[in-house]
Specification:
This protein has about 550 residues and is an alpha/beta fold. About 30% of the residues lie in helices and about 15% in strands. The strands form five sheets. Strands 1, 2, 3, 4, 5, 6, 17 and 18 form an eight-stranded mixed β-sheet that branches. A hairpin with a 4-residue loop joins strand 4 (about 120-125) and strand 5 (about 130-135). The radius of gyration is 23 Å and the shape is globular. The structure holds ligand NA7. Ligand NA7 binds next to helix 6.
Amino acid sequence: MENTEKLMSSTQDPITGEVDVVIVGAGFTGIYAVKKFRELGLSVQLFEKGTDVGGTWYWNAYPGARCDVESMEYSYQFDEEIQQSWNWTERYPTQPEIRRYIEYAANKWGIYDHAKFETCVTSVVFDEVTGLWTIETDQGDRVVAKYCLLATGPLSQPIYPRIEGLDSFKGRMEHTGLWPQEGLDVSGLRVGIIGTGSSGAQCLSAISEVASQVHVFQRTPAYVVPANNYKLDPEVQKNVKENYKAIRDVAWSTRAGLRYGLGDRMAFEFSEEERDRYYEDSWRRGGIGFTATFFDLFDTQEANDTCAEFVRKKIHEIVEDQEVAGKLCPHDTIGCRRLLVVDGFYEAFNKPNVSLVDVKDTPIERIVPEGVVVDGETYDLDVIILATGFDALTGAINQIDIHGRGGLALRDRLMTDPKALAGMAFSDFPNLFTVHGPGSIAALGNMVPMGEFSVNWIADAIDYMRSNGKVLMEPDHEAEDAWARRVDDRANESLYVTCRSYYLGDNVPGKPRKFLLYLGGVPDYVSKCNEIAESGYEGFHLV
Ligand code: NA7
């Protein structure tokens, strides 16, 4: 077998030949996988659509883009050198800083020697005779591999709204998830934002500072809590670094794999006044831990309602125009869709250049060359920002023609019955792995460490195969179904199924309504994955 260095002799020419592993996607997980698999002595070829590493953080370059998990936690932990040498500047990292961090790790790990950029993987096909995968790209590459890892990201496939006349707009129209790399200056321009998830909310806070007018087209109001972002004190950072192991260990013991998930206070152990004091503390502290103020906020609707009501009161306090405040108030289960962590979102509606256009009962009629039409009124715009989200967990995988045993198309499976054992492996698709796939913790946890954990698990599985004379592994149908049932059961006993969300896939027309994430919590997920490995991969068929 040729090695990767030889394959990479000219990165612009189409690559042909054989490697041990092909990795699709150079985000957090993909580049870590290159490092990990190289340590096992495997030859690796990484393909990435963007011009550099970063994955979804490469593409989401919109103004105000920032992670809602704190930098000191949203970072690699299985490389002590990187963990100690990198210095974060703010409590929550901005998109540019995250990109710099990923590039830093990629350079340290020598990733660029194994990567080809501006290259989109188009097909991944299993040959039942040879037991190998053939991976083809839009640049004419054709690589044969023993293993393939789809590190394509759970929130990376943008979705465009189905609005009549979308292409007729004569100004600039950009999706937050595919933002132009050269940036877009909206100073003095009239901007429309369609969508009020994290991307739309972050965009609003940033661009309302410079645009002449911003119209926010809101279909479903979201719960937004402050981030309370601040510059990181070097002393605090030094202290965290000295205690990183202990801090990370605590995080691994919580449901979301984050330190905030601690505590066992129950909402109704307290009077309303006392309860609100706890909510007030959480609000001031800022961050996604707001819905962990009490342990049972996702267990009963009554407990959840106390939290939701507190946010509604805050909205009415912050937003001066009470009619606008009323329209901004959500009435569904808080946390059922991802909580938004954004500084200055509600405050933006007090600015004279920001207006809220409620499109719940009167949806956007159409887009015309001049702007957006709602209820017969045309909002004249220079720029339309589509902050309309992603086809989560399965969307990016479904962009690739993947065929397993008997020519079975993975897309057909995922569009009818999205499932993967431990969120990582698919029956009938031997030696094909993914990370943050359906049935994983993904967006319900801290995705960087969960990605590292999954890559480590996959690397151990490959190592196990090689040490035990096995060449193929794939989940048994029964074990995969049992995992999918566990995912369903956990979801059906929770409040997460009470609203529309990308967790359930119902933001994408034609996608089956099925809760895609494992709600059993990080410790349970990790121990189940470890049990599989320790049992010699029970539930997998090894050849
Ligand atoms: P989200 O959270 O899926 O938000 C998408 C938003 O776009 C949401 O408010 C949608 O309203 C709205 N949307 C979609 N189509 C339309 C149409 N046709 N008209 C009006 N509004 C529409 O995506 P984000 O990119 O903000 O965030 C995704 C994740 O990325 C986030 O959780 C972070 O983890 C990072 P709807 O709610 O469907 O009524």
